Amino acid sequence: MTESRGSAGPNGGTNTRRTPGTPCWVSLMVHSLTATEEFYGALFGWEFRPGPQQLGPYVRALLDGREVAGIGRLPADRPLSVAWTPYLASNDVNRTAETVRLCGGTVAVGPLDAADAGRMAIASDPSGAVFGIWQGGAHGGAAVTGVPGTLVWNELVTFDTASVVKFYATVFGYTQEPVVSAGLDHVTLHIDGRPVAGVHGMGNGLPRERGPHWRTYFAVADTDATLHQVVGLGGQVLKPAHDSAHGRVATVADPEGARFSVIQSPR
């Protein structure tokens, strides 16, 4: 999953022009922008600078001066969920948004311009999982991925993979590779022969209160140490650290309840 700093990571690396369908950015909308900046600044070493304000106050998170994520403030009159949202690259967000609608998805926001940064929309697939669509302008997406403190992977957690994978393949042109394992419903989505995201079907094991959703993974140098930091900063450990084929992984929530996973590359 992880890549070296400055290289083309699994979510697009440093290329300014992403192949359509490639996860290129991740954004979080919260109630308290200041408190959230303090949490992620302490956890990942992020610094912040203002970004496009079309949807309200918004900042871009930087690691070593390179943009890695976005955080915005939710409108006070909108009871929206606090969650990390991946943005998938598009060469024509209007056309992609229309394809989303034709394939049974919903477009909730946009398409609209984000100043000169690019053009965007926020949509959901037929099962209700929310994702963004990004047509890069001056801002192509994350400047670096796959190193500690940056995005490393995105995975759709849903009821079953069959129908929803067909939706994403039609909209973004993904090819798919099933993970062969008894009792495991898991598919890896590919662009140009490389893996860019996963889809995990949980059936009745999917928490009903959450429903289908995209999960963001951030790389860390030490998963266990990161969990101590999360708790010390007011967050929660939702799934304790365990070893996987891709590294030591855990799932946590920030103080506002936004869930994400952290993963340490195998040593």
TrEMBL record:
Keyword Hydrolase: no
UniProt-listed InterPro entries: Anthracycline_SecMetBiosynth (IPR052164), Glyas_Bleomycin-R_OHBP_Dase (IPR029068), Glyoxalase_6 (IPR041581), VOC_core (IPR037523)
GO molecular function, one term: dioxygenase activity
PROSITE patterns for this protein: VOC (PS51819)
Domain VOC, residue spans: 22-136, 150-265
Annotated segments matching region Disordered: 1-21
The entry's keywords: Dioxygenase, Oxidoreductase
Pfam family for this entry, one: Glyoxalase_6
PANTHER family according to UniProt: CONSERVED PROTEIN (PTHR33993:SF10), GLYOXALASE-RELATED (PTHR33993)
Protein name: Glyoxalase/bleomycin resistance/extradiol dioxygenase family protein
